[in-house]
Design goal:
Keywords: Cell wall biogenesis/degradation, Lyase, Signal
Function: Lytic transglycosylase with a strong preference for naked glycan strands that lack stem peptides.
Number of strands: 6
GO molecular function: lytic endotransglycosylase activity
Pfam family, one: DPBB_1
Structural class: alpha/beta
Shape: globular
CATH superfamily: RlpA-like domain
Number of domains: 1
Organism: Devosia soli
Oligomer: single chain
Length: 117
């Protein structure tokens, strides 16, 4: 195979992967609820700390995201309805219910990987 053919094949494979690949990100997660419950989220919805929702800096509101705790392998699904987190290098803020479901609420933070559904 010529070098040009290899480059064309690689470019075609990259195009297929990029068009079908979902958004994925790994990093820190925290949770929020007290003080925000019953107030408007950035999406305009009323924030409910007992719902399976989350805040992300850039994913569109309504995006369903699978969140996997890197320490335990436990996975949940949340809906993005707010903006944040605005602390450190965290990539997502989960509702109290979501943090409880993942099992890190008492610790406050954990390491996760996200994948948009």
């Amino acid at each position: 195979m010529t070098r040009r053919a290899v480059l064309v094949a690689a470019a075609a494979a990259a195009l297929v992967l990029s068009s079908s690949a979902a958004y994925a990100q790994c990093g820190g997660a925290s949770w929020y609820g007290p003080g925000f419950n019953g107030k408007r989220a950035a999406s305009g919805e009323i924030f409910n700390e007992n719902a399976m929702t989350a805040a992300h800096r850039s994913l569109p509101f309504g995006t369903k995201v699978q969140v996997v705790d890197q320490n335990t392998g436990k996975a949940i699904e949340v809906t993005i309805n707010d903006r944040g987190p605005f602390h450190g290098k965290r990539i997502i803020d989960l509702s109290k219910a979501a943090a409880t479901a993942l099992g890190f609420r008492n610790r406050g933070t954990t390491s996760v990987c996200l994948e948009a559904m």
